[in-house]
Amino acid sequence: MGIIIAILLFSFIIIFHELGHFLLAKKNGIRVDEFSLGLGPTLIGRKIGETFFCIKLLPFGGACMMGEDKVDDKSPDSFNSKSVWARMSVIAGGPVFNLILAWIFCVILIGATGYRPPVIEEVLEGSSAEEQGMQAGDVIKEINGRNVHIWDDMNLYTMTHADEAPFEVVYERDGKEHTAEVEPRVLDESGSPLLGVVGGEIEKPGIFGSMQYGLYKVKYWIHYTVDSLRMLVTGQAGLKDLSGPVGIVNVVSDMYESSAPAGVWAVFLNMLNFGTLLTVNLGILNILPLPALDGGRLVFLIIEAVRKKRVPPEKEGMVHFAGFAVLMILMVVVMYNDIMKLF
């Protein structure tokens, strides 16, 4: 069951990503030749209008083919006949739609389960926070200059920026802001350094509040993704910490087995939460300025916009091909790591 749910969840996220490209292409009068879910040979498909919609053999990945590489196609509805700004909007449409989907997921999650506000319920004895005079009822506003809207924001920062301790915490009490230098300390048998503050009760903000805090939660997941990439680049995390399709299936299976006894609603919410992580990851990773990704294509379009002249297609194609080859090698490495984790 976990495999089926993982395929359905990932497929839905991919379709929504490609839908962003598709709708922006249509908005700009660009012909879409193929809209596909999956990779490899076509299993089933049907042509509707000018577009061939199909499902392919491998259930991961997808494509919205607009003839980007057909430089000699000068027809009015071709991709390359449109302005550079129109083409940029089409390429950016996929990642933007990923973030929109993440917001929708977060609105549902917060409406159903609520959120924990950044209000201190308890300050642990012997902690640096206690020594700095922090008290129950204080509202945390910032940590090392990063805004805090929900309790998760602070937990994430202390986890991914442990090397930056002590942390400068800005908090509000009786309408006035105060600043404290807080250093994590080991306070119990767990042996883990703690900031020394405990969060309060979960609140449900209602419909409009869920829309607002849904944005804050998406921002949290964006920080989560960017901070994880920073840790990877700086060596605080390694390739073995990355997961691909096999790892995703394994995580979804574990989540399903642990939440199934609580009922369908619990399974749905857990999958929605994990789906938020996946769609934000896909959106952020795709917008990175790397060859073969949407961000890499945007780089060439930005260069074209600045120099008023397109980069020679053959050179751009070589860069994207090299980037695609590197991505395939990385995918093989990640898949190997995922398989080894199963044993």
Give a structural overview.
With 343 residues, this protein is of the alpha+beta class. The protein has two domains: 1-115 and 205-284, no CATH class; 120-199, Pdz3 Domain (Roll). The chain has helices at residues 2-27, 84-113, 128-131, 151-160, 206-233, 245-259, 264-287, 294-307, 313-341; strands at 34-48, 51-65, 120-123, 139-143, 146-147, 167-173, 176-182, 185-186, 193-194, 197-199. Strands 5-4-6-7 form a four-stranded antiparallel sheet, covered by helices on one side. Strand 1 (34-48) and strand 2 form a beta hairpin. The model has no long low-confidence stretch (mean pLDDT 89).
Q: What's the mean pLDDT score? A: 89
Described by strand count, sense and barrel closure, the largest sheet is:
4 strands, antiparallel
Computed structural class = alpha+beta
Record field, number of beta strands: 10
Radius of gyration: 23 Å
- In the sheet with the most strands, the strands line up as 5-4-6-7
Q: How would you sum up the global shape?
A: globular
Distance between the termini: 20 Å
- The number of helical runs is 9
Q: What count of domains describes the coordinates?
A: 2
DSSP helix fraction: 40-55%
Low-pLDDT runs of 5+ residues are none
Q: Which sequence of SSEs, written as H and E, runs from N to C?
A: HEEHEHEEHEEEEEHHHHH
Strand content: 15-25%
